[in-house]
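A.,

Following up on our hallway conversation. C-alpha cells first:
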C-alpha cells in the first residue's frame, strides 16, 4: 500500500505571489499572480488523484493543472515557477506531471517550453491525454544509456 504524503505549502519565488484558495490533504488550488499571469492553478498528488492508475506513480509525484481552462493558457514562465516551487517545498518529488488532452498542441507547446517532456499517452474514462513530466536533476543526472553495462 502506497502512503501518500500531504501536499506541502508552496512559496513563490521573487516577483510571484501564490495565495492558497482551497485545499485538501492531497489537492490545493492557488491563485497565481506574476508577470503576465493572474489565474488559478491546482496541484495534486498523482497517487491520490486521477492519474494514480495511469503510470508507475511515486507517492511524491504531483500533477499541475489550471483550475479553469486548458493548461496551455498558463504561460510557460508560470508553469516553470510552479515547478520550482513544488521542488522547493517537497525535495522528494521525482516528477511533476502535466496532462495535455490529446490534440491540444498549445498545452503541449507551453509545457515543453517550461521544461517538460512527453513520456506516455494514457486513457482516462472517456478522455485521452499525453503525459509530460519535469524531473529534477537528481533524477535525470544518472547514466541513461539503457544498453550500457557498467564496468564493461
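Then the amino acids I'd put at each of the 152 positions:
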Amino acid at each position: 500500500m502506497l502512503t501518500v504524503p500531504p501536499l506541502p505549502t508552496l512559496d513563490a519565488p521573487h516577483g510571484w505571489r501564490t495565495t492558497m484558495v482551497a485545499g485538501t490533504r492531497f489537492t490545493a488550488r492557488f491563485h497565481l499572480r506574476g508577470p503576465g499571469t493572474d489565474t488559478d492553478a491546482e496541484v495534486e498528488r498523482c497517487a491520490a488523484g486521477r492519474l494514480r492508475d495511469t503510470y508507475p506513480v511515486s507517492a511524491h509525484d504531483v500533477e499541475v493543472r489550471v483550475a479553469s481552462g486548458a493548461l496551455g493558457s498558463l504561460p510557460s514562465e508560470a508553469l516553470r515557477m510552479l515547478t520550482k516551487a513544488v521542488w522547493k517545498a517537497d525535495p522528494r518529488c521525482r516528477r511533476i506531471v502535466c496532462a495535455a488532452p490529446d490534440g491540444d498542441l498549445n498545452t503541449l507547446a507551453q509545457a515543453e517550453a517550461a521544461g517538460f517532456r512527453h513520456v506516455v499517452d494514457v486513457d482516462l474514462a472517456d478522455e485521452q491525454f499525453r503525459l509530460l513530466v519535469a524531473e529534477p536533476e537528481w533524477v535525470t543526472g544518472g547514466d541513461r544509456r539503457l544498453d550500457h553495462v557498467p564496468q564493461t
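Helices lie at 76-89, 105-113, 137-140. Curious whether your intuition agrees with the design.

B.
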